[in-house]
Amino acid sequence: MDFKLKAQSGDSIAVPRLIFSRLDSADEISIRVALYILATNVTDPEQIARDLKLRSTRTAESALLWWAGAGLLEQVKPDAIVTESTPAPLTWSEIAAATRTDPMIANLMECAQNAFGRPLSRTEMQKLVRLYLQDGFDPEVIMLCLTYLAANEKRTIGALTHELKSWQNEGVATGEDADRHLQKLALRRQREAFVCQLLKMETSALTLGEKKAIARWYEEFGYDDTMVSEAVLQGGANSDVWYVNGILRKWNGKGLRTIHEVRGYGSNDNSISRNIRVDRAQPSGNDFLKNAMERPRRLKRKD
Fold first, then answer.
1. Is the pLDDT of residue 80 over 60?
2. Which residues contact 30 (CB under 8 A, 6 or more apart)?
3. What is the pTM of this model?
């Protein structure tokens, strides 16, 4: 079959010859990162990792360093980076004045003290009020996040700040968003426990990368517990999260969505599923020993 390049209608970008000269030495991720940068002009490793669904931010950083060494990018000196000025923390008198006009501040402090199980220090109060008044987080989101953290034995303002930013990256902006996100987090924990039970490991042993991989099986690939169980079965006794991740990634890439499809795929391919026994849902009803003595004997013909 022959192919030819289709005519372009203006939706294109210029690609430096340097990239073509490095095709034989750059890996797949580096090529993807280079094309992404050319299309978006974004070099922030966190955003690159999120948009390209890379395993970690470090993977994006490695690709950026590789292209800097190749001459496509240049590293900016720290003093050349323009940063937005950070607002000064509210003083205690400013917090007191704001509390008199905004009763939500008192509600936030009360919620935080109940979640932490102790009175807040002055510094903690300043940081809490800053999340609301200066960083712009919805007070209902803050209170729901405090309750979630307390249930997971995380009772610090630092943990609250980190979790709120994580929720913000997930698109949480209102109390309704937070409710849906908490349901998703609870479902993720159930799935993590299910996978750990299959792999005979403790949930506490899961790394952040493994948790993200498990979430991807269900939320991105669209597989259910049955397909995950099948992947663990086909992986064998020595399976771990990353081995099962490889199996499910392969199935997803092949467009295999059911157990019947993955077992059929294994019977026509040298994959790990080739030795899986496929049992009938119902017995066939054929008994090959029935009337065996009455059948005519078939003797081997002598030539």
1. no
2. 63, 66, 67
3. 0.54
